[in-house]
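Structure request: Vanomycin resistance protein VanB, Nonomuraea glycinis.
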Amino acid sequence: MRNAGPIESPTDPFSSVPLPSRATSKKPKIEGLPPGVSRDIFGAPGQQQQEPRRPAGATPPAQSAPNGGALPPATPPSQPWPVNGNPQETPSFGRERPAPALIEPDPPRRRRLLPAITVLLLIAVAMAYLVPAVLMSGSVLRGTRVGGVDIGGLTVTQAAEKLRTELAAKLNKPVVVDIGTSKDTIQPDEAGLQLDVVTTIGEAPSGFPTPFEVWRALTGTTEIEPRVTVDASQLARTVDALAETVDKPPHDGRVTFKGLQPVATPPRDGALIDRAKAVHLISEAFLRGSGSAVLSLEPAQPTTTPEAITKAEAQAKRAVAAPITLTLGDRQAQLTPQTIAANLTFGSDGEGSLAPQFDAKTALTGVESSLVDAAQVPRDATYDVVNGKLVLVPARQGRGVNSKLLARDLAKLVRNGGPRVIPVRLAAAPPQVTTEQVTGLGIKENVASFTSTFECCLPRVTNVRQMAADIDGRLVLPGQTFSLNDVVGERTAEGGYVLAPQTVGGRVITVMGGGASQLATTLYNAAFFGGFDDVAHTPMDYHSNRYPAGRDAALLYPGVDLKWRNDSEHGVLIKTASTATSVTVALWSTKRYDKIEAVESAKRDFTPFRVETGAAAGCRPVIGQQGFTMDVTRVFFKGGDELKRDPKVTTKYRPHTQVTCTGTG
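Returned structure:
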């Protein structure tokens, strides 16, 4: 050992143990004294005994007890001597060293049981999820409800059928529309309301459920809101019909004539439904299921002023005060006050004033022959049908009074006054259709015709026959699109049309030219079997037995039109004929196909009609018609074989409410 010296064995066993000094340290404590030995042998506390060193082998002096008796020396417990570290460091006696901790190993049996228990628990948890999950897979999650209808545990197909059967009836609630002091009811079918079963089922949890879905199925329910759609275009048509009954359009002032007396119509404020807003509010009412919608009429102002009316009245009186003489060289003709009054009106110019508007072309009808030789009048080339055969009527170049200049000059005279003589000028008047055009268009045979029937002597018959006369002799050139509304224009009393009932958006209203859809349907079928392109047609909302199912066409100026295109290389001549109970449209051209057939599907998706009772004086009885859906496909044949076929056209008819009138009015 590096610091170890000779070890001397002490004579006194206690002399080798340093005693604690209170002045230096409280430690070390002397513990573990032999039995019968008191601490007093070390002297009073704080006292330190010093003994002189004695020679080796000397006998220590005897110690005396406090009472004077001698005590035998005590043998202290053996202490280990320091061998490392600082040699000046004093060992501590009586201090117990902590024993190293012992890790008691788990019993072998416990180590084997823990993994087994864990595996069993995992298997139990997995089985608790997998068993119900397997039983629930392939169907809608149990506890799933749509609008109060439980579809849990059903297949997707079964759930869809149940929703159509039970939920559709719950959603079939009308909406009451409150418009000021009046109310009206819009039925779901009038709004095109439909339950979107596919989207609704798509939101329902199905397939193999997750653990969370299994827990939810076993402990609770899943509520899903039904998805409902509203056909905006259908609802817009219904709102249009509703607006026709409640709108109060503003009226611009105007001045007309009753005989020779000017009649002033003062401007009048109006109130109109905001139709786009109405569609939105009614749609929201259906989708929320609130059952009511409040609409308001928005004020609408006319453009003319009362001052403009007064000024126009004065001009009107001056206009019919005397005849107006038209001169052309040495030729003269007079427009009588009656002719002037019949063709002169004062309408809004859009800037607040009234401007004179003169129909010179009509006014010249009776007097132009006095100014222009009959041989100079132009004539369009056309065909007449005589005994079922075409007879060419050749075109003729001509000249006539320039009606546009006459209308301008007469209006100027009415506004400013002056001499009542207007010089007129001739203008070239070429025919719109030349003979060369007609003869080179291949118009030689009847390629298609169609006849529809109606009841005699109703107001609508007048409109059907008038429209047939308006399109008779019209020529449709190759590549040209024929628009029925563009050709006929707005139906007016001056044009020979009358007020008649017409179904618009599911409601029967009275409009000028009502019932003209009969002519549109007749023309549509002639173009259908003639093989011409269908550009635009709108099926009827309801099926009528007088029209072929799936092949009818609605008409309403200006929005609902019938358009077809002459896609052939030949011209098409339209010829019409009408009686008191029928109208016929024939198309003359060159045949391109041997036969054209309409292949119809079976009727499906029948919907029952409602029954209502009306007691109002204006009630109209209506026979109920159930709704249905069907498809029509046009098939073309040539040489005995099918040449082509058009995509099928699907028509969905709504149920027509049966109305029974009980009133005595």
